[in-house]
Amino acid sequence: MTRPLPQLLFFLPQSLRRHYRPERARRRGWAGNSSAIFALRRLQKGAAMEAAEAVGRLSDTQRLKAAFHYTVAGLCEEVSQDKEIQFSKQTIAAISEITFRQCELFAKDLEMFARHAKRSTVNLEDVKLLARRSKSLLKYITEKSEEIALNSLEEKEKRKKKSGSRKGRRASDEQEEHVVAESDDSNMA
Amino acid sequence: MKNTVPRSTVKKLLSKHKPHLRMRANTDLLVHLNVLLFLHRLAVETRTNAIAEKSKTIKSRHVRSSAKIVLKKSRG
């Protein structure tokens, strides 16, 4: 019963452990088991408040950077599993920073392309133009854009059929079933 | 270097590459400006290459290795 808290500390995350000071806990009478739990709760509350405050203090760019970092770390994890190579933390941070700055350049370029075509909305064509410098990248992006175009066409057709089916109910239900069966076949193939 | 621009040569070269592409007036001057800037970049890059190799004269291999880099950088 002399030091129950240190054992409990193993269940705490690293960020909370530094809040615990055994001398202060003893002085305040948190050394008992039941009061230890209260102490932990107090600590957790304080830490949660701190974290919320920290998030509130972050600017939009910092949040965006954090999101970039998270995504980059996930992608790096995939690559490291695939190639059996480990990334250091600094490498991942550097990659995320590079990605962030590259995105600024991309945004400016896309804006200029759209303006050149006297549009205010960025198009798929603009993105293709952005990737024109490397042949392989252009090929990849063109394939992807064709895929997207096909998908959107299919969705439009489906919507048309659905809107048509609302008018004549029974006959169109059978038709829809046929459509579903066909699409399943195509998925299997 | 002489200060005249070989306008008809520039136009001819461009029309050779893209026969159906028409040019507005004085665009060839801007094309020529781009060429000059490209040559300048190439010269600077080649000289740094030669200095890095501690050779006092610019040799063909310096130009070749720097041309690769500069051509890649000056893609539109």
Structure description:
The complex is a heterodimer of chains A (189) and B (76). With 189 residues, chain A is mainly α. Chain A has 9 helices and no strands. Chain A has helices spanning 5-8, 14-17, 22-27, 33-57, 60-83, 89-116, 124-130, 135-167, 169-188. With 76 residues, chain B is mainly α. Chain B has helices at residues 7-17, 27-52, 60-73. The longest helix of chain B is centred in the middle third of the chain and has 26 residues, at 27-52. Classes of the chains: A mainly alpha (189), B mainly alpha (76). The chains hardly touch.
Features:
heterodimer, A: 189 residues, mainly alpha, 9 helices, extended, disordered N terminus, disordered C terminus, B: 76 residues, 3 helices, elongated, kinetochore (chain B), chromosome (chain B), protein heterodimerization activity (chain B)
Low-confidence stretches of chain B: none
Estimated structural class of chain B: mainly alpha
The fraction of residues in strands of chain B falls at under 5%
Helix content range of chain A = over 70%
What gross morphology of chain B would you assign? elongated
How many strand elements of chain B?
A: 0
Distance between the termini of chain A: 68 Å
**Distinct helical segment count of chain B:** 3
Secondary structure: number of strands of chain A: 0
